[in-house]
From TrEMBL, chain A:
Belongs to the binding-protein-dependent transport system permease family. LivHM subfamily. This is Branched-chain amino acid ABC transporter permease. It comes from the Bacteria. InterPro entries: ABC_transp_permease (IPR001851), BCAA_transport_permease (IPR052157). Keywords: Amino-acid transport, Cell inner membrane, Cell membrane, Membrane, Transmembrane, Transmembrane helix, Transport.
TrEMBL record, chain B:
It is a multi-pass membrane protein. The chain crosses the membrane at residues 6-29, 36-57, 69-87, 99-116, 146-163, 199-219, 225-242. Its main location: membrane. PANTHER family: HIGH-AFFINITY BRANCHED-CHAIN AMINO ACID TRANSPORT PROTEIN BRAE (PTHR30482:SF10), HIGH-AFFINITY BRANCHED-CHAIN AMINO ACID TRANSPORT SYSTEM PERMEASE (PTHR30482). It holds the Pfam family BPD_transp_2. Keywords: Cell membrane, Membrane, Transmembrane, Transmembrane helix. InterPro entries: ABC_transp_permease, LivM-like. It is found in: Cell membrane. It comes from Roseibium sediminicola. This is Branched-chain amino acid ABC transporter permease.
Length: 290, 320
């Protein structure tokens, strides 16, 4: 029974939380590797995705899962738009300037959310969902959806990156931008594709956080640190590393309450981040270090 | 009466500008001199504020301290504490590109926020620490405001002179060399990591001092006293708009941004309540937009960084 308690109350929530982090971390790792800067507005873009889904759910009265694709597409469009309007002209300047701009974008996206949807806590559906019993494991449907979505989305992305022409172009840009440009890869298209993918995954991440907990205007910002910890833990530029990192950070956060006061759960990601930078900055799967 | 209120408001604003100017100066050491991205300004600010509060308040059985020390001790303690927090972070992150420092500094600000919220033995929890002695605080209200402004001004001018001296000294030249061409500076035998760490710690200490000045002015410090994201961001826009790498620019930026920020607050406070909340976020949006516009159209700021090398090698006015 002890084992089931551990699994039901810590490991399963950890995997769900980890899947949410992983969805965001994949986008962060792609941006870090291909565009070569830390994108600090990632968390707030995730919040935006979650609230767009909320607008679809309340506006059209459809189930949240139907709203997800809409949110993914809309957030991807917003991400591309932000890049075009705010980041594109900073491309020739030192990359750290774009990091700063992204901090400003984080504030702007959040204030748009706060103006449009207010600062109150929202949910996609009311009422308590009771978990179902699978041979002693207590799992809610939405938790299954989260993990399935992670597998489908990241699996699809991995196929795209390894099999398609544009996916290969993206990987080439990440490995060696000069060589990639020299061999005729269209930088603009690669950048746009990166934003479409990162924005879409971001929205999915925010959506599932909202589905499993609640929607708050600050939720994405608080998710930023775990997502970065996951990306660096897995190795910058490695999609499968980001997934692995996300799951480890999520499970570590949930398990940490067994040893440290629960108020400091959020500190776990920070500890992992510093520890990785200290002992193995390339991450578990040998990513790159900028 | 009307005039008195106005004078009082101006004093209030001037004190805040001085405090923010100190923060901007601290950030200028980190970003302007050394190119280090610190997104956790509010964290160092809070460390300074609480340290000084603990050192200078009267004994309180509910928490650690009050040690009832002189405020000067409190302020020095604030600087030391902020520097001490900056040290391990810098030590770990400064080996890499500044992006990592940006992430880690967001993290450290977050941890500091958590500690303040959940360690009542240290910070008295949500109620915060009250009755912090204000220097020259026991004379009349107006006199005390004026006296405090004078004290803050003296601190700011002292900090400005010291930082400016540092900027013109070989140390400052070396920092700019490291910022602009790390490889070349390394080849000249400069210990890049250690120098960056120095800049990061000096800057953090100034931010801690800013926090202490704020706590003593307010006479209390609570977790809600400042919004971490807003404060951090305001300091950034102050420095970028004023001109990073230019100490006078940092101070000018602090004045301009703070005046815009607080005057716009007066404007939005007059709105009916249901719009007032939204107006607050519209102000935040506009301040974010302002950063984007400055970065795009005037990245060097109002007062650009002086390029002393050019003056020496060319005749005055030859570059025009």
């Amino acid at each position: 029974m002890e084992l089931f308690e551990l699994l039901n109350f810590y490991v399963i929530p950890g995997i769900v939380l980890g899947s949410i982090y992983a969805l965001g971390a994949v986008g962060i790792t792609l941006i870090f590797a291909i565009l070569r800067y830390a994108h600090l507005a990632h968390g707030d873009l995730a919040t935006l995705g979650a609230f767009i889904a909320l607008a679809v759910v309340t506006g059209l009265g459809v189930s949240p899962l139907v709203a997800l694709p809409v949110a993914i597409l809309a957030t991807a469009a917003v991400a591309v738009g932000i890049d075009k309007v705010f980041y594109e002209h900073l491309r020739e300047r030192p990359k750290i300037v774009t990091v700063m701009a992204s901090l400003g974008i984080a504030l702007m996206v959040r204030s748009v959310i706060q103006v449009v949807w207010g600062v109150d806590t929202e949910t996609y559906s009311r009422g308590i969902v009771r978990p179902e019993d699978y041979f002693g494991l207590r799992i809610r449907d939405r938790e299954i959806y989260t993990v399935v979505a992670l597998i489908v989305l990241v699996g699809g992305l991995q196929l795209f990156l390894t099999r398609s022409k544009w996916g290969k172009a993206m990987r080439a840009m990440s490995d060696n931008p000069n060589l990639a440009l020299l061999s005729g890869i269209d930088n603009k298209k690669v950048v746009m594709l990166t934003w479409v993918i990162a924005g879409g995954l971001c929205a999915a991440s925010g959506f599932f956080l909202g589905l499993n907990t609640e929607l708050k205007s600050m939720m994405g910002w608080y998710m930023l640190l775990p997502m970065f910890a996951a990306a660096i833990l897995g190795g910058v530029g490695r999609v499968e590393g980001a997934v692995l990192g996300g799951l480890i950070v999520g499970i570590a956060e949930e398990l940490s309450v067994l040893v440290i006061p629960s108020e400091y759960k959020a500190a776990m990601a920070f500890v992992i981040l510093l520890f990785m930078l200290l002992v193995r900055p390339t991450g578990l799967l040998k990513g790159k270090v900028l | 009466m009307e005039l008195l209120g106005l004078v009082n408001y101006a004093l209030f604003m001037a004190i805040f500008i001085c405090i923010y100017a100190l923060l901007a100066l601290g950030l200028n050491i980190q970003w302007g001199f050394a190119g280090l991205f610190n997104a956790g300004i509010a964290g160092f600010f809070a460390v300074g504020a609480y340290t000084s509060a603990i050192l200078t308040t009267a004994m309180d059985p509910d928490r650690i301290g009050g040690f009832d020390l002189h405020f000067i001790v409190g302020w020095i303690g604030a600087m030391l504490a902020a520097a001490l927090v900056a040290w391990p972070i810098g030590k770990i992150c400064l080996r890499f590109r500044s992006d990592y420092l940006a992430i880690a500094s967001i993290g450290i600000a977050e941890i500091i926020r958590l500690v303040i919220k959940s360690e009542p033995a240290l910070t008295n929890g949500a109620r915060g620490i009250a009755s912090i002695p204000r220097p020259a605080g026991d004379i009349g209200y107006m006199e005390s405001q004026i006296a405090y402004l004078a004290i803050v001004l003296v601190v700011l001018i002292a900090a400005y002179i010291l930082v400016e001296r540092q900027f013109n000294a070989p140390w400052g030249r070396m920092m700019r060399a490291i910022r602009d061409n790390e490889g070349a500076a390394k080849a000249m035998g400069k210990d890049v990591e250690f120098r960056r760490l120095e800049a990061f710690i000096f800057g953090a200490a100034l931010m801690g001092l800013g926090g202490a000045l704020f706590a003593h002015f307010n006479r209390s410090i609570t977790p809600e006293a400042i919004d971490p994201m807003v404060a951090t961001f305001l300091v950034w826009i102050m420095l970028i708009l004023g001109g990073s790498g230019n100490n006078r620019g940092a101070i000018l930026g602090a004045a301009v941004v703070w005046i815009i920020w607080s005057v716009s607050e007066i404007a939005t406070d007059r709105l009916p309540h249901e719009y007032a909340v939204q107006a607050k976020y519209i102000r935040l949006f506009l301040i974010g937009l302002m950063l984007q516009l400055v970065l795009r159209f005037r990245p060097e700021g109002l007062l650009p960084e002086p390029l002393r090398g050019d003056l020496r090698s060319t005749k005055p006015g030859a570059d025009r």
